[in-house]
Amino acid sequence: MSRSAAEQGAGREAAVAERRSATPQASAELARRIATIVDDKLGEEIVALDVRELVGYTDHLLIATARNERQAKAIHDEVRLRLKRELGLLPARTEGEREARWVLLDYLDCVLHVMVPEMRERYRLERLWGEAPRLDLGLG
Questions:
Q1: Residue 12 domain-assigned?
Q2: Distance of CA 94 to CAs 40, 112, 128, 132, 137, Å?
Q3: What DSSP element (H or E) covers 58?
Q4: Cα(70)–Cα(74) distance, rounded to whole angstroms?
Q5: Which of 23, 46, 101, 104 has the fewest CB within 10 Å, making it most exposed?
Q6: Residues of the domain holding 113
Q7: From CA 11, how far away is CA 61, in angstroms rounded?
Q8: How many domains does the chain have?
Q9: Cβ–Cβ contacts within 10 Å for residue 74, how many?
Q10: Domain contains 138
Q11: What is the SS3 assignment for 52?
């Protein structure tokens, strides 16, 4: 028997809340780690939004631009590989990796959006989440 979307959402929010209370800075550290990997693969305009006060299903949204679909796929592959190897983390969900115009990697505490320039301009996630403070990523 499959769980309803409401049950899945409640389970996700409970998992995020549990991690928040156990290790409050872990999601910020994960966001910075993901941003560093994206930067290593030459992702551009990397932004992390702290949405903890706005939603219950994640702590940080990371948004990055890839020059083209090939680079978006390379960023996806590198983030997935390195987080698995270094931290034993796999995304709970991945979307868009085939077309690679907007790739989403969902690590529960952090959700990474890698977009080609046209998609980033069209959807303007930073504007949509404009009230969310930005996390300092410490990128050079």
A1: yes
A2: 21, 10, 21, 23, 23
A3: none
A4: 6
A5: 23
A6: 5-128
A7: 19
A8: 1
A9: 17
A10: no
A11: coil
| Amino acid type, 104 | L
134 inside domain = no
Q: Residue holding tokens 């290593």?
A: 40
CATH code (residue 86): 3.30.460.10
> What span, in angstroms and rounded, lies between the C-alpha atoms of 103 and 17?
25
Q: What is the pTM of this model?
A: 0.85
Distance CA 28, CA 121 (A): 26
Here the tokens at position 71 are: 């680079």
Judge whether 133 lies within some domain.
Answer: no
| Sequence letter at residue 29 | E
* SS3 of the chain: helix, strand, coil, percent, to 5: 45, 20, 35
The pLDDT, as a whole number, for residue 1 is 45
**pLDDT, tens digit, 9 for 90 and up, residues 1-46:** 455 555 555 665 676 566 655 666 899 999 999 999 999 999 999 9
What does the alpha-carbon distance between residue 95 and residue 104 come to, in Å, rounded to a whole number? Answer: 5
- Is the separation of the CB atoms in 48 and 126 below 8 Å? no
> Most distant CA pair in the chain: distance in Å?
49
